[in-house]
Amino acid sequence: MNKFTKKLMALGLSAMMAVPFLTACGGSEGGSASDGGDSASASGTVFKIGGIGPVTGGAAVYGLAVKNAAEMAVKEINAAGGINGVQVEFKFEDDVHDAEKSVNAYNTLKDWGMQMLMGTVTSTPCQAVVEETHKDNMFQLTPSGSAVESIKYDNAFRVCFSDPNQGLGSAKYIGENGLASKVAVIYNSSDVYSSGIYEKFSAEAANQPFEIVAAEAFTDDSKTDFTVQLQKAKDAGAELVFLPIYYQEASLILQQAAAMEFAPKFFGCDGLDGILNVENFDLNLTKDVMLLTPFAADAQDEKTQKFVSDYQAAYGDVPNQFAADAYDAIYIIKAAAEKAGITPDMSTSDMADAMKKAMTEITFDGLTGAGMVWSADGEPTKAPKAVVIAVEEVTNDDGTTALVGSYKAM
Q1: CA distance 218 to 11
Q2: I want to staple 126 with a disulfide (CB 3.0 to 4.6 A). Which of 13, 145, 277, 342 is the partner?
Q3: Which CATH number belongs to the domain containing residue 139 in this structure?
Q4: Residue 34 forms part of a structural domain
C-alpha cells in the first residue's frame, strides 16, 4: 500500500490507508458509477475510467475506500456536466492485492473500453500493472501506490507520497517536533513498501536530533511474533518506535508491547490506516499512536467537512486517507483532461500523451493537499500532515458503551 498514504484517519488513518488502506466493481461486483447511460456508452460519447484495487482479502479496507470515494466523485462530476461537457463511466475491478490478479483486472477493463486508469490501490499490483499501461501508453494515476516503481514510466503519476518521501517526511517530523531522542524501527524487510520507507528514514535520521538505537526487521514468513524486536527496542531505551508497516502487523505489535509493559510512543505511515477496524482488538492500545498523512477527517475546512459528511451519508462510514486520495484522483484526472482538451473519440495513446503534459501544468487544491503540482516523473509536491489517534467511550442508544477511535490533526 501500498505509500503518507493508507485511518491515517488515525493519524489520518482509518484506513490506510479505513486507507483506506480506495466497494469495488470487479467480476460479480463489477459496475459503473456513471450517469451517462447505456446509449451514451454504446455511441462512444463518454470517457471510460477504470479502477483497480482490493475489495476482498486482507487489504480490502483500502480498496473499498478508494472505490467508494471514486464513485462519489464521478457522480458529482457527471451531475455538474462531466469532463469537457462529456459524461464519465467508471468501473472498478477487484485484484485482492495480488499482482497477477491485478493484471487480469487491467485486461478486463481494457475489454470494457477503459481509456484511463485510476489505480492501482496497492504498490505491488501497481508495479505489475504499470508495465501494461506503459506498453499500451495509457494514462495512469494511482491514488495510493507508493512504491517508487509503481510509477516508473512517463505515463504514470500518483496522488500519495512515494515510500521514500514518507520515510523522509517521518524522520523530519519526528526530529523537528522533538518527539524523541532515541528511536527504534520495526520494519518488514521482505516488503517493498516497508523497506523503502525505512531506508529513506534511516538516511534522513542522520540529519535529525535523534538516534536510531534499534532497527529490527521481520519478513512475511515471520510476522506474528514481535517480542524479540520489541525487547531489543526496550533494552535500547527507545522512547519512540517507528512502524513503517501495515496495520495488521502493527495491531499485533501494540498488543505484544502492552503485554511486555513497554509503552513508547508509536509513529507510523499510511499503512497503519485501518487499525481502528481490526476485529477483536482493544482500541485503547491505539491511543496516541501517530501517523504521517495528508488527510485528517476532523479537519475544519469546508472542503473536508463536506466530503466527510457526503461520504458518511453514502456509505455509513468515516472516510480514511485512501478515500481522500481517490476522491482527489478523480478530480485531478478531470483537471488534467480539461487542461489537455481531450475528447472521448481520441485514441488511448493520444489521450495519454496529452494528459502527461497537462499533469505537469496543472495546480490542484484537494483534500490531500493545497497547491499540489506534479513533475514529469509523476511525483506530487505537497505538504505532509500528521494525525494522532484519539479513543473515547461513547454510550449507545441501548445504554451500552463502546470505544470509538478517531484521527485528530496534530
Answers
A1: 24
A2: 145
A3: 3.40.50.2300
A4: yes
